[in-house]
Amino acid sequence: VQLQASGGGLVQAGGSLRLSCAASGPGSDTWYIGWFRQAPGKEREGVSCINYEGVTTYADDVKGRFTISRDNIENTIYLEMISLKPEDTGVYYCAAANPWTIVKSLESYEYEYWGQGTQVTVSS
Fold first, then answer.
1. How far apart are CA 48 and CA 29, in angstroms?
2. Which residues make Cβ contacts (< 8 Å) with residue 18, sequence separation at least 6?
3. pLDDT tops 90 at residue 37
4. Where are the beta strands (DSSP E) in 30-117?
5. Angle, CA of 96, 102 and 30, to the nearest 5°
6. Is residue 85's pLDDT more than 90?
7. Closest Cα partner for 85 from 65, 104, 113?
């Protein structure tokens, strides 16, 4: 599975961004896709994930502000982010997890394949 993340940028607090993750490779349309972020000096944390049926999970601090979706025709996963806060700043990664073995969908160790990351910076 190959993943290509894009869409990051610089935005003011309260603004919005949409991240994209293009997935390719055999079976990639059936894998869990998760978004993770890593702020400077902090550990990588799970933000949201979606399975092939469209069932979603969100971290508590992004609920109501972030929306994950999946275009199964284009095999692209989106993360729509609104009401951005400075603490949302970080490098955002998309990753793929095996749907047959995943247990904790926002834990990075569950994910086998990772994209290159895209920087999101929210200024105050």
1. 17
2. 7, 78, 79, 80, 81
3. yes
4. 32-38, 45-50, 56-58, 66-71, 76-81, 90-97, 113-114
5. 50
6. yes
7. 65
